Amino acid sequence: MIRNNDVKMVPLPSNAIVPERDVDKPPVLSVHQLGIDFGGLTAVDNFNFIIGRTEIGGLIGPNGAGKTTVFNLLTNVYQPTRGTILLDGVNTAGKSVSQVSRMGIARTFQNIRLFDRMSVIDNVKIGLHNRYDSKLLSSVLHTPGYFRHEKQADEKAMELLSFFDMQDYASHDAGSLPYGAQRRIEIVRALATEPKVLLLDEPAAGMNPSETEELAENIRRIRDTFGIAIVLIEHDMNLVMGVCEGIAVLNYGRIIAKGTPDEIKSNPDVIEAYLGKQGDR
After folding, report:
1. Measured by CB atoms within 10 angstroms of the end CB, which terminus of the chain is less buried, N or C?
2. Which pTM was predicted?
């Protein structure tokens, strides 16, 4: 059974809440008045969101509420129509997806995006481009610097795979592994970019209860080992309530509630919009 977090959440002057351990540090992610319009349709509006430096946060809501759109905004896949995103105090406006990645945001996707016919270790090494970005000429000529970078990348990739006890699968084709293992590889690849914030889009999708429980423990281990913030979109309420410290609820592109798991569970607006609708789970 996924255990609940035992953490005290502390309010900030901005009306946000962060874990007590993060209260003396600037938030790693601050989002203010964020919104995006597609033609005449407002997909996300007045989105305000603050994440503590080592917080595990949740973003939940019914299907079509705009959750993945928010992740696309945070990673600059979409450029917002309005609002501000500050990553570690730096505005991400106008940055490319790769620039935002280098600034410290990594993500996984609702639908797994691995290179199926590439080895597990090569999939992870793709995420290491932020650290080991060999110059084109050295790659073509296979200079000593190229081989040094390759060795460093191999060692780092194996270190990250070992974190999930997956080092023995390094040479396997990624697409040949079970679904749960592929999910872990995608998380490992995201961690390879050395993020300050890790965004997980429905990481428990398709997992059985045992795999979901293991995922919850891995999320906590990631936070504790790497000292980063994690935000997850998830429909599995057992996972959300068990692992998240602060939760925001999105409905029709707007946040309708924020709070601790206990506060969210008892919020009547949330019950009506989301938790009380079996079909949206």
Report:
1. N
2. 0.89
Nearest to 114 by CA among 188, 28, 4: 188
Q: Is the same domain home to 99 and 211?
A: yes
- In tens, the pLDDT along 67-115 reads 999 999 999 999 999 999 999 999 999 999 999 999 999 999 988 889 8
100 plus 124 within the same structural domain: no
Decide: residue 146, CB within 10 A, 0-12 exposed, 13-18 middle, 19+ buried: middle
* CB half-sphere exposure, 1, CA atoms < 13 A: 3
CA atoms within 13 A on the CB side of 256: 21
Domain end residue (candidates: 190, 217, 238): 190
Could you give phi then psi for residue 215, rounded to 5 degrees? -60, -45
**Residue 210 belongs to a domain with what CATH number?**
3.40.50.300
Same domain flag for 271 and 241: yes
In a domain, 245, yes or no: yes
Residue 177 lies in a domain: yes
For 248, half-sphere exposure in the C-beta direction (CA atoms, 13 angstrom radius) is 25
Taking each helix axis from N to C end, the angle separating 179-191 and 209-226, rounded to the nearest 10 degrees, works out to: 10
| Neighbour tally for 163: CB within 10 Å | 18
Hey, what are 132's tokens?
């080991």
What is the sign, positive or negative, of the torsion defined by CA atoms of 185, 187, 191, 192? Answer: positive
Looking at the predicted structure, is the pLDDT value of residue 142 above 80?
no
Residues 6+ apart with CB under 8 A from 94: 79
Q: Which residue, 174, 190, 206, sits at the end of a domain?
A: 190
Domain range spanning residue 208?
9-104+195-280
